[in-house]
Amino acid sequence: MSATFILQGLTPQNHISAGADVMQVDGIERVLISVAFVSSTGVDLLASHIRPHAARTTTFIGIRNGITSAQAIKALLDLGVDLKAVDTGSAHLVFHPKLYYARGSTAARLLVGSANLTTGGLNNNIEASVAVALDLSSPEDSELARSVEEQFDELSTKHSANVSAFPEGIALTALLADPRLVDERTAPARTVSRLVLLCHFIVLLMVLDLQAARAAWQAADEAGCQAAPYSGDGVRDVAFRPDGRRRAAGVTAHLPHACSSGLHNSFSGQCGP
Q1: What is the pLDDT of residues 211-252, one digit of tens each?
Q2: Alpha carbon of 196 to those of 34, 149, 245: distances in Å?
Q3: What pLDDT was estimated at residue 176?
Q4: Which of 54, 229, 244, 261 has the least C-beta neighbours within 10 A?
Q5: β-bridge partners, 247
Q6: Distance from C-alpha of 119 to C-alpha of 177, rounded to nearest angstrom
Q7: What span, in angstroms and rounded, lies between the C-alpha atoms of 11 and 93?
Q8: What domains are there in the chain, each with its CATH number?
């Protein structure tokens, strides 16, 4: 095993070249890409390196986060990768691992750090990662490669309510209609900041006044803050423990655990839309 530290913006290498290096494994048999956020421009930066191996590539992409866009999802699907959308059911619980991995018959490469599949993550931001070259003839290296693949494979099997695929051949118009995805034609920075402020405000209402919070959740539903729709018997948010209780500022609110409708978040035990 050999490893290289990359501090994008302060060292010579950026994550475009680091991501390209991952794909230089001889005789690639499997590729895994996991990121929180994706933009279409980010996909474009690595598309030429992913496309030749698309049939062997699985991507785990976070959605419902105010950044991953419909255009980016379409760009990945058009490359022909197996795209797994990871929806935690909450804007407050973000799927956040960033990993680029490729394995051949005798070697593998792994890039783990802070770089999302966006222009900022791959080039413009100050980002840190470790690039690891694995020799699969080494028991330790082989075990690390096996562990990476096994744990990501288990995301689909153990959290099937939260990890799903988009329909084959889905049109961009359908993706744009999905409230869990951002439209890049809008102003992303403004959308994200407003959404974050709105969600934080509603969480405060939940602590101070559950009745007011119920109405606020309903009003915020179309704004994208959809982590905890009111089901008629309580208000849900990822901050609630899986047993349905929340303690904040000396206040205890007990909410039923069963989901009356919508997505059950197997990561946090919460309900989502």
Answers
A1: 555 565 566 554 544 443 323 333 233 333 333 333 333 333
A2: 23, 33, 23
A3: 96
A4: 261
A5: 252
A6: 24
A7: 32
A8: 2-176 (3.30.870.10), 188-272 (no CATH)
